[in-house]
Amino acid sequence: MSQHRKDLLVEVGQFVEQVYQMGVREVVLSPGSRVAPLALAFVRHPHIKTRTVSDERSAAFIALGIAQQTNSPVVIACTSGTAALDYAPAVAEAFYQRIPLIVLTADRPTEWIDQWDGQTIRQQNIFGGHVKKSFQMPVDLTHDEAKWYRRRIGAEALQKALDYPQGPIQINWPLREPFYPEEGEEFVYDSENAKAVKVIKSETYLDQDTWEEEILPIVQSVKKILIVAGQGQREDSIVESFNQLNIPVVSDIISNYGNATSAIIHQDVFLKAECIEALQPDVLITFGMSVISKNLKLFLRKNPPKYHIHLQEGGEVPDPFMALSTVVRSTPDAFFDQLSELEFDEEYLEEWKSADEKVKANRIDFFELLTFSELEVVNHLLSELPENSVLHLANSMSVRYANFLGLERDDVDVYANRGTSGIDGSTSTAIGHAISDPDRTHFLLTGDLAFFYDRNAFWNNYLPKNLKVVLLNNQGGVIFRMIDGPTRQPELEEYFETHQRTSAKFLAEEFQCKYWEANSREEFYFSYDSFLNELENVSIFEVFTDKNISKNTFKAFKREGLYSK
């Protein structure tokens, strides 16, 4: 065995053992030659689950879904060249959703960059500002200091990905041939010398003096306090605090707090920028990540609070409402636990609740008098979600429909790629979730453009039986008919909308998925239970709709629910 290959097998094996000890249990590989030593080392590790997905873009989104579902770092690894660039959409999504993707890009030795060598591009820092940090492994590992440097990079990279706020990192690893192990040569997994770094975390909360000096004077000096929950997963302790507070909690569907007794879930329907002095807050308290509701953002920018407090343990804090005044470095559960000990007047909560309840009342019989539309399909899906299920919402109209209707369940988890809001990986992300969570049924609500854009999500050997797809096919998308600007342009149909006549039926046949279709209200309701009860295959229910009818229904629903005083 050459000294180079001997050192490589030791260091690659030790790297894999190192990331295992620091929490990595899942790896999604995309095949290639340059990545072979890394791929083989992961595959041969006895405690790491590996999967192979050929399309790097889909592979990265599948890994993102696994990481989100398991709340653990996940490795993606690809060969050299343009393969790494295909990771970019998922890496950006992971960055803005704070998901710890470990992006491992195999590379050619540095001296061969820009020398017209095959599959060789500039891979260092290839993701720019959309990773927390980019690391470069040494190409030669013979010297003791090079080995120490390799081990230092492995530990530092995992720490960086897992430090709050979590996020993706890149490790670019130039690999010199020969790198395939010969017969009898093995990777070395030495747990005692892997040099994993243990990180001990402590709670982040406000001490009593700071609470009394900085927070109490603000919240006790006003009558109108509003809480806005951004994207995130529900914490029961926070729900308990909300249920003790007489404070409205504006909860987009992706915040997962719609089940709180003080939750407001229809803000996107009844709010408008010109409203509504009675709803304007004196104090705004926010936590979590982005919000879907454009109307909420416009309303708060037009009617800013006197104080805006954002709760976040660390990292940069955005200012989407143009009113940020205070950042509290506390966990939200600790802050709201302290806040719930105070008493607040119910009048402001009742004002918000009145507007929200009006929309709920209109929703009960709204669809009976109207032509079948996409909004009705979504309403039925949300109403019939089984207990302990998961809902995934694709961008663009799918997530908006669901947010307009809202969800008040404490046994359903909702996810969407709202870090960057792209249509390019929604199906792959849902598949990643479903394969790592086989005991729950996962539903994906998607439109035709998002679905067909990510059709390679089905091109792998891991399609989960517990995934059900509700596909709204209006043959080209309807969002540009909802926005005032495009609708006034004569080029709307040819250059904004994407007309297509594709059906998912042939895709379902190609990938052995169970398929249903509906062209009317009667067909939809007749087939829905059969779709719901299928347990042996990925299920796809394609509902063909008229985009103009869906547009008019959507606008009518909003018009009926507008706030008036």
UniProtKB/TrEMBL annotation:
Q: InterPro entries under this entry?
A: MenaQ_synth_MenD (IPR004433), MenD_middle (IPR032264), THDP-binding (IPR029061), Thiamin_PyroP_enz_TPP-bd_dom (IPR012001)
**Keyword Ribonucleoprotein (UniProt):** no
Output the GO biological process annotations, alphabetical, semicolon-separated. Answer: menaquinone biosynthetic process
Residue ranges occupied by any Menaquinone biosynthesis protein MenD middle domain in the UniProt entry: 223-392
| Pathway note | Quinol/quinone metabolism; 1,4-dihydroxy-2-naphthoate biosynthesis; 1,4-dihydroxy-2-naphthoate from chorismate: step 2/7; Quinol/quinone metabolism; menaquinone biosynthesis
Q: What does the note under cofactor report?
A: Binds 1 thiamine pyrophosphate per subunit.
- Coiled-coil annotated residue ranges, if any: none
Q: Is Transferase a UniProt keyword of this protein? A: yes
Which cofactors are named for this entry?
A: Mg(2+); Mn(2+); thiamine diphosphate
Limits of the Thiamine pyrophosphate enzyme N-terminal TPP-binding domain: 15-123
Q: Which UniProt keywords apply?
A: Magnesium, Manganese, Menaquinone biosynthesis, Metal-binding, Thiamine pyrophosphate, Transferase
What EC number(s) does its UniProt record assign? 2.2.1.9
Report the catalytic activity. isochorismate + 2-oxoglutarate + H(+) = 5-enolpyruvoyl-6-hydroxy-2-succinyl-cyclohex-3-ene-1-carboxylate + CO2
A GO MF term: thiamine pyrophosphate binding
Q: Relate the protein's function as given in its record.
A: Catalyzes the thiamine diphosphate-dependent decarboxylation of 2-oxoglutarate and the subsequent addition of the resulting succinic semialdehyde-thiamine pyrophosphate anion to isochorismate to yield 2-succinyl-5-enolpyruvyl-6-hydroxy-3-cyclohexene-1-carboxylate (SEPHCHC).
Its subunit composition reads:
Homodimer.
Alphabetical list of HAMAP family matching this protein: MenD
- Protein family membership: Belongs to the TPP enzyme family. MenD subfamily.
Q: What is this protein called?
A: 2-succinyl-5-enolpyruvyl-6-hydroxy-3-cyclohexene-1-carboxylate synthase
Organism from which the protein derives: Flammeovirga agarivorans
